[in-house]
Amino acid sequence: MNNSTSCFVLAWSPDEEESFYVCIIAVIFHLMFWFSIYTHSSLRQWKSMQWLYVYLIIDILLLIRFFILYGIRRSFVCVSLIIRLFICYFESISDFYLNYLQSYVLLALNVCRYKQITHSGIDIYSTHRRLMVIIHCLIDLFPLLILILEINIGWAVTYRKQGGSCDLYYPLLIAPLLNTIVGYGFPVLLTLLFLFLSLRQVRLSVARIHTEQIINNRLKHHRVLVFQSIVFYSVWLLLWSPHVIASQYVYISTTIGSIAQLLNYIELTLDPIIISALDIRFWKAWRKTFKRLKRQIAPATNG
Fold this sequence. Notes:
The protein is mainly α. It contains nine helices and four strands.
């Protein structure tokens, strides 16, 4: 039977079952997060929260990617060679693209927060709208251009072992080294730098007004922003790094690759929890919701 009439069944490793349950929990937490935003206008800070919202949208895209691939492979559908090739490219490229996209989104978030702190009283999201749009476009295109270039010159090749997932293979060591530097080292080091500069700026501001009895609300807000960034980025770095680094040097369906990817899905699960827990506005919104539900339940209980 020739290739034009042959079909192939895409099976998946049993190790993916653990990721499936983690991703189900992740979907629940993300739905709760966005439902809170939908029901409380105080949380819809589209300008100042735009980078966090973009980051969480990428989380959702990663989850959608997982369930699409999981459904295809668990259904044991027999597909043609062309469709199998398309699925393999989608599986290997989308993982690389979305994860590296998040690293630059977080870099942009921390740069903007640093600018907010150093230019106190100026809303950089309103005064630099055009620049924000340009940055969004550049961040979206940059990792995609790297992928296209590497595939075209033969530095990256998609492949799949029997019973495993599709992954990118790098015939030359220079490709994974370049990806690690550009997609991991560069944005991570710059983000850490801007976190340090933000923390330093807040400490200097506190020192300058140390003799005053009341620290102004803007400074308090800046301190909260820095604290949120440090906590969130620490958890993200701990759970995200193994997958991004391992994916450049280890086949995704090996034990190391599977564990690293599972940690990445755990990080997707924790993202909305950490962001919500560190933002007082969510606590206030949830408190209002709880009081509202309590008032509605009380008459029914009394009756």
